[in-house]
Amino acid sequence: MGTARSDARSTNLEGVIRMKHLRSSLALVALLGVGTAAAVAQPAGYTGPGSQQPAAHGSYSGPSSAPLMTVKQLLDEGRDDQHARVQGRLVSYDGDERYTLEDDTGRITVEIDDKDFPRGQTVSAEQRVELLGELDKGRNKVEFEVERMILVN
After folding, report:
1. CA distances from 5 to 17, 53, 67 (A)
2. Alpha carbon distance 111, 99 (integer Å)
3. Is the pTM of this model over 0.85?
4. Neighbours of 69 (CB within 10 A)
C-alpha cells in the first residue's frame, strides 16, 4: 500500500512538473511570436526611388572630412579605396544598383544600394545630389560605391 501511494505521489509530481514546463514553453512561444510579428511589421527599409516606405535606420547629417571632388578629379586623381564626396545628377539607371552620375566635368558609374537613397523621397534625373562614398578603381573599371546620398537644393 505504501508503494501505491508513493507511485501516485510520484506520478502526480511528474504531472505538475510537466504542466509547469508546458506553461513556460507556451509563454516563451507566445513571446517569440509577438517579437517576430513586431519585426515583420516594421518597414524593411527604403526600396528605391519612388518608395514611400521609410527606412528603419537613421543617418549622420553633420560635416564630412572626405574631400568634395568633381567627376574629372575622381577619374584623374582618385586612388582606389579613397573616400570622397561628389555632386551632380543621376542621369540614368544602368541596372543592378548602378547609375550614371554627371556633373559639369564628366560622368562616372556609381553603385547605390536601395538603403542609401533618401528615405521616402523620389530622386529624379534633374535633382542634384551629393554622394559620399569610396572610389573603386581597378584595371578595367572605375566606379564610385555610395555610402550615403544627400539631396542638394
Report:
1. 18, 66, 85
2. 6
3. no
4. 21
